[in-house]
Amino acid sequence: MKNLLTLLCATCFFMSVRAQCTTDTIALRQSLDKAIIALTAAFAKGDAAAVARLHHPDVVKYFGGTNVVTGRAALEQQLTGWFSSSKVEFIENTIESTVFSGETAIQCSIFAIRNTPKNGGAPVIARGRSMVIYVKDASSPSGWLTLREMTQAAPDK
User: Fold this and answer.
1) Interatomic CA distance for residues 113 and 105, integer angstroms
2) Domain range for residue 28?
3) I want to staple 134 with a disulfide (CB 3.0 to 4.6 A). Which of 8, 105, 119, 156 is the partner?
4) Span of the secretion signal (predicted)?
């Protein structure tokens, strides 16, 4: 009887636990692609406000070490300073993986950014790998907002 009761309790427990609900449709991928296109376009224009609108108000971006940006306002402030002194262009964005779970997307990519100083200095290209967590949000111009991002050095080619 004790074994039967244990089995019954375990069955009820496992039936109530929900597995990760992974959804991956062409429509979701296309909508996320539009968000990334909007982001790269805003960078190309040097539009800090437009870039910030594509991020959650409570965004946290981890750029290594103590370089952490918390919140949409802080991100816009940082970008305003960067864009005032440099032209910033994404020149590579190679998607390594994308996983959808409900209204969340997690994407890993290799990126390269060309930073050209407006004072006439030589351009510098920075490469990295990022993991970005996006959430669907009707208030976003693209339908998605960046909630978290972590970057690290890109692997050697």
Assistant:
1) 23
2) 13-153
3) 105
4) 1-19
- pLDDT value at residue 22: 54
Beta bridge partners of 149: 61, 132
Low-confidence ranges of the chain (pLDDT < 50): 3-20
Residue 156: the pLDDT is: 86
Q: In the chain, where do the E strands start and end?
A: 55-62, 68-70, 86-101, 104-117, 124-136, 144-153
The C-alpha atoms of residue 120 and residue 112 are separated, in whole angstroms, by 20
Sequence-distant (≥ 6) Cβ neighbours of residue 44 within 8 angstroms: 88, 89, 90
pLDDT for the residue numbered 49: 97
Question: CATH no. for residue 34?
Answer: 3.10.450.50
Tokens encoding 139: 């208030």
Number of domains in the chain: 1
